[in-house]
Design goal:
The chain is mostly beta strands. It contains 6 helices and 37 strands. The protein has a 22-stranded antiparallel barrel.
């Protein structure tokens, strides 16, 4: 964790905060889920592991609709998530490159990411985190962002919260779509979907392909002098491009035998290949060497049986699941033999996950709903190197199995007071057993459109296989833990035309896993090891909103997050967590078939680290304006366009890694 720390960024913060506060009075009309005014009609499953109206959820949850995903998901999911309250993310130089998210200040490995209820964290990654740069928005029905510790329902990794990606379920007459798009940086994008149902059978299929010629990763649009890894030699001329090729496919099938029994199966796959830069090289020729490229592939499948018993009082769900991630990285002069002579090499990483989960939902009439279940999950990792002369490589071949049991009771008192409480036990073979808990409450004043809510709970993250079993690992590492709580309210005004949502939260993290020299390091770990020592605290305020300024014509959407994230032991700000950020969007739909949107994202200063000069730095405040246009010519055909970063802002999500300037894209969409 020490490599992820920096001094608290305060330069420019007062001006930034003041500019955002000007917006707040005008946006006292918000809603927790930005994309739609119909939050009460939206369905969520992540908050309590059962389908329920979002308005009845007792946790802080945002729902991103398929329409928003389609509008912003051409290059993946990062742009879709941009502007969601509580979320920060960074990318190492453009589309397809390694990209991670922070939820309420928690580290990437401390945020659980699911696809259709199955975790997709990479078992072969250092902290088990999900690389969002590799994901593709194929045919997604919605994304739910559940904020706050959720390990009592979901187990390891859900310390900051849960991001649940839910693919489309076919329904009704067959319908399909084809999308063709092109634009700046040689972008070519295609997507096709088909879904529907026929009697008891339903289906949904999708494919997506993207090529981006791209821009250089390191040093692009950076005006200050840069050096290579020795800290002295100037950076050589940048290459013309660094291309990315991404693809994805999904399939979801279901068959209902009766009202009480159904079965479904699904597959999701992604493929991502990109070229990267290596600024840490000590030879100028190696920095932009064409040998530096990476390829990753992901495949996931599950089979699920749903059965109702006892006059549908007990719903049973049994799921058999598995996924695999393969990553290969080719790099110039990145490996060393026993005599420390460097050579070109390929490093391979393979992570696998398989398991079985049962969940029961028992209706207790006036006593509410009891949700309970058990899970067994096995993770494996294998690493390789080619070539691998003697003394140059120590492979990892490791497995860990976790047995879990959970239960939650949810009930409503006096028709307006929603309560839930529950807990979970996770036992990791040959490691630790730990328990987590969670309690929530919400009070609905329907006559005034107000919902008051609060939650408290604990989170945990099991040490990754790399942290336990690599040459730097310790199999005895304890789980990271957290205690968090939030309070807030959701407000509806003027007949659902205005919404407001505010949350105050705090999280305390303990036993964080760090790397360095420690008494636990063995004689075979002269360069350091992983150990439990870190403490951190995050706290802040989240605001999100939406207003129908002129019904049927003008809408205003906004969000704002203030976050204080610090390493308690060192009294330093955590890396890449801005103290202030905000989003505001104005949408016009007054002309038949036309929708226009102007969206402004403002991000305050963030602490970062320059690994070449080994010093803490601050990434400057930036504002980025994007424009979107969509015109529906008829029921079958529509055209769309977008201009990203229309103000041509120069900014960095990671220090010294540039981002694209003004870029234009356009395309056509056929739906039937």
């Amino acid at each position: 964790m020490s490599s992820l720390l920096a001094r608290r960024a305060v330069a420019g913060a007062p001006l930034f905060s003041a500019s955002l506060l000007i917006l707040v009075p005008a946006l006292a009309c918000a809603q927790e889920a930005l994309p739609s005014l119909e939050i009460g009609a939206a369905t969520v499953v992540s908050a309590d592991r059962v389908e329920e109206p979002a308005a009845r959820a007792t946790s802080a949850v945002s729902v991103i609709s398929s329409k928003e995903i389609e509008k912003r998901g051409a290059t993946g999911l990062l742009e879709v998530l941009r502007g969601a309250p509580g979320l920060d993310f960074y990318s190492s130089g453009g589309v397809g490159t390694t990209s991670y998210v922070y939820l309420r200040g928690a580290a990437p490995g401390q945020t659980l990411v699911l696809i259709d209820g199955v975790r997709i964290g990479d078992p072969s990654a250092t902290d088990g985190a999900v690389d969002f740069g590799a994901l593709v928005a194929t045919d997604i029905e919605r994304i739910e962002v559940l904020r706050g510790p959720q390990s009592a329902l979901y187990g390891s990794d859900a310390m900051g919260g849960v991001i649940d990606i839910i693919t489309r379920k076919g329904e009704g007459k067959p319908k399909g779509s084809v999308l063709l798009e092109g634009g700046s940086f040689g972008t070519i994008h295609t997507r096709a979907t088909l879904s529907g149902s026929e009697g008891p059978l339903w289906y949904a299929f999708a494919v997506d392909a993207l090529h981006v010629g791209g821009h250089p990763r390191f040093g692009y649009r950076i005006t200050r002098p840069l050096t290579i890894g020795d800290g002295v030699t100037p950076l050589p001329p940048l290459p013309v491009d660094d291309p990315t090729n991404k693809g994805g496919a999904s399939a979801r099938l279901g068959y209902r035998f009766s009202e009480e029994l159904s079965v479904e199966a699904a597959f999701t796959g992604y493929d991502n290949a990109f070229r990267f830069d290596n600024p840490f090289a000590f030879a100028p020729a190696d920095v932009f060497d064409r040998e530096n490229h990476a390829h990753s592939s992901f495949g996931q499948g599950y089979v699920r049986i749903d059965a109702d018993l006892f006059d549908r009082r007990l719903h049973n769900r049994l799921m058999l699941f598995g996924n695999v991630i393969d990553r290969d990285i080719w790099q110039a002069n990145a490996c060393f033999d026993a005599s420390f002579t460097s050579f070109d090499c390929r490093s391979g990483f393979r992570g696998e996950r398989r398991g079985l989960e049962y969940q029961g939902d028992l209706k207790l009439e006036s006593l509410g709903l009891l949700t309970f279940g058990a899970r067994e999950e096995t993770e494996t990792v294998h690493t390789s190197q080619d070539p691998a002369p003697a003394g140059s490589f120590t492979p990892i071949d490791a497995t860990q199995t976790t047995h879990s049991g959970f239960a939650q009771h949810k009930l409503t008192l006096l028709d307006r007071f929603d309560l839930s409480y529950g807990g979970r036990i996770d036992a990791v073979e040959a490691n630790h057993t730990f328990g987590t808990w969670r309690a929530t409450a919400a009070y609905r004043l329907e006559e005034t459109g107000t919902k008051l809510r609060a939650s408290a709970g604990t989170g945990a993250r099991v040490a990754s296989l790399y942290q336990r079993f690599s040459q730097y690992g310790d199999p005895r590492l304890k789980p990271e833990t957290s205690l968090g709580y939030d309070v807030g309210f959701d407000q509806t005004l003027f007949g659902d035309r205005l919404f407001a949502s505010v949350s105050l939260f705090e999280n305390d993290f303990r036993e964080l896993i760090e790397y360095g020299s420690a008494p636990t390091c063995t004689a075979t770990q002269p360069f350091g090891c992983y150990f439990n020592v870190g403490k951190a605290k995050t706290r802040g305020v989240e605001f999100s909103g939406e207003a129908a300024l002129v019904p049927g014509e003008w809408r205003l959407k906004a969000s704002y997050t203030h976050l204080a994230a610090e390493d308690v032991e060192r009294n330093l700000g955590l890396l890449r967590r801005p103290r202030d950020k905000g989003m505001a969007a104005l949408v016009y739909s007054g002309f038949p078939g036309l929708e226009l949107e102007a969206r402004l994202n403002v991000v305050g200063p963030r602490p970062d680290y320059d690994f070449i000069t080994s010093r803490r730095v601050v990434d400057a405040t930036y504002a980025r304006l994007d424009l979107f246009a969509d015109y529906k010519v008829n029921e079958l055909f529509s055209v769309f366009a977008r201009i990203e970063n229309i103000n041509d802002a120069r900014y960095e999500e990671i220090y010294n890694y540039g981002t694209a300037g003004r870029s234009a894209y356009g395309g056509v969409r056929l739906k039937w």
